[in-house]
Amino acid sequence: MSQIDIQSDIQQTILKQQKIDSRRKWILNGVLLVLLLLAPFVMYPVFLMKILCFALFAVAFNLLFGFTGLLSFGHAAFLATGGYTTGYLLSNFSGLTTEMGVIAGTLMATVLGLGFALLSIRRQGIYFAMVTLALAQLVFFFFVQASFTGGEDGMHGVPRGELFGLINLEDNLNLYYVVLTVFLGCYLLVQRIVSSPYGHVLKAIKQNEPRAISLGYKVDRYKILAFVMSAALAGLAGSMKSVVFELASLNDAHWHMSGEVILMTLIGGMGTLLGPVLGATLVVNIEYQLGQGPLRDWVDPILGGIFVITVLAFRSGIVGEVQKFVRKNMG
Amino acid sequence: MSDQYVLETQNLVKEFKGFVAVDDVNLKIQKGHIHALIGPNGAGKTTVFNLLTKFLIPTRGQILLKGEDITPLKSAAIARKGMVRSFQISAVFPHMTALENIRVALQSFEGNSFSFWKSGASLNRLNARSMELLESVGLTEFANTTTVELAYGRKRALELATTLAMEPEILLLDEPTQGMGTEDVDRVVELVRKAAQGRTVLMVEHNLGVVSKLCDRITVLAQGAVLTEGDYETVSADPRVREVYMGAGSSGERGTDAEVEAAQ
């Protein structure tokens, strides 16, 4: 066989592999979709929506942490900014329909994300984490002091309103399917982003930044875009959360929340698509179940323990370990 | 004269808090040459590389690429101007396949690198060219292998192919044969020779055997300054060169001392 034949042979193999991978991806997406469509008939919709909002938050965070290699310790700021903006607008301007409030919240978080990114992107590693934490603390103190947020009490009575002025969102099931649609849209978007030409550059930057620079990539710009998209999706999660609970609370802005999203992502598996969704589901469930029982005061130590075990024993997280296992045993 | 020299430095200086790492270096790299930068450990060879590609900012002095002052440019811009470097420690993207490694380099010129909405399949049209480049360094059969699983010599070959994907006019190679066995060294020598056709190469190299086989011109650095310059015969006969190599005395240098003697 000539050299050219071998080359085109290998190219064919690679294309076939891509097809198999993408088929696997869509089967998985399909299963996920069916489960989520049926879920509200088995579980309380508001609880499910809480999981979806946190799952979106974790997916957004993972775009930056898992796929770009930047550990932000300030993502609570975007969640809270989305929530407060939407809450404030929907409470004070009765003419606004719900989706306008949500879009505005998302935009606000996007702009804030750009600001954070411009101030932090040149820092590396722990310094990057520290700068984002410091900026997020500034945002936190702003929300504590500002009168419209209700300070420690939070912003209560955010009206859910109607989608496009047509669909009544006071109904939990209606709202569930709206939140589900938004979540799935964002999930698919992130799936697309990480496999796009842009996603390949992010991968390169994450794996070897100096090399990416020496190949002519202005890495800061790629990182800034990733940061802004991550902030936007985090803001969207916060906006929807305030609609779901009819409440925007100071908890969302606290650094504790920035830590929790790291925990969710790590447990589920950073740098995987499904990992943060699974991680968020687990963490929200653990908090809820334990919060009901006699271990109420032990929620944080238990989560901390899980965190330590994850980091020490299975660093790639649940989904990451499963992927490794599948790859090893099924070719 | 700027036509003749594609790359020049003028009084290049790099100081680190009172320590002069690169001291008033004037390099002139002639077009089409394979030019070696040699010298004992700590002579400032890699620092010069980092200055040329702006991974470090020069304290003073100028860098001219084809007569144009590129001193204020950033690393990525310099790569786009056609001067691309390799690294001392094998610089690959470990969790991509060999093919994807090359594709990332080719993609750099595609103008779709911010297209986060496009399908990854749009990169497949770069596959054919990537395969050609892999073929040129003998890695065809490893196209679909994750890079982290490749042997060291193959990683270096892949790195070279990735660098060549940038179609650089000037290739900066930082110790391309470092840590390799004899067989791999011979392969790399052949690869560099092939890669150098129609290009200018500046390489840092410890292995004087490699330098004698490949290089048209040699600059010797010692303690940050240029000690001497010339072709291999001139440089290897220079008593001062032998002295700095002997004087360095570290175990890494002894091998090259022997080679200096063997070559004479």
Automatic annotation (TrEMBL), chain A:
Protein name per its UniProtKB record: Branched-chain amino acid ABC transporter permease
Parts of the chain that traverse the membrane: 26-47, 54-80, 100-119, 126-148, 173-190, 261-286, 298-318
Main subcellular location: membrane
Molecular function terms from GO: branched-chain amino acid transmembrane transporter activity
Location of the protein in the cell: Cell membrane
GO cellular component: plasma membrane
Protein keywords: Cell membrane, Membrane, Transmembrane, Transmembrane helix
Source species: marine sediment metagenome
Membrane-topology annotation of the record: Multi-pass membrane protein
InterPro entries the record matches: ABC_transp_permease, LivM-like
Record bears the keyword Transport: no
TrEMBL record, chain B:
GO CC terms, sorted: plasma membrane
SUPFAM superfamilies recorded: P-loop containing nucleoside triphosphate hydrolases
Organism lineage string: unclassified sequences, metagenomes, ecological metagenomes
ABC transporter domain: residues covered: 7-248
PROSITE patterns to which the protein is assigned, alphabetical: ABC_TRANSPORTER_2 (PS50893)
Annotated GO MF terms: ATP binding; ATP hydrolysis activity
Keywords: ATP-binding, Nucleotide-binding, Transport
Protein name as catalogued: ABC transporter domain-containing protein
Matches recorded under InterPro entries: AAA+_ATPase (IPR003593), ABC_AA/LPS_Transport (IPR051120), ABC_transporter-like_ATP-bd (IPR003439), BCA_ABC_TP_C (IPR032823), P-loop_NTPase (IPR027417)
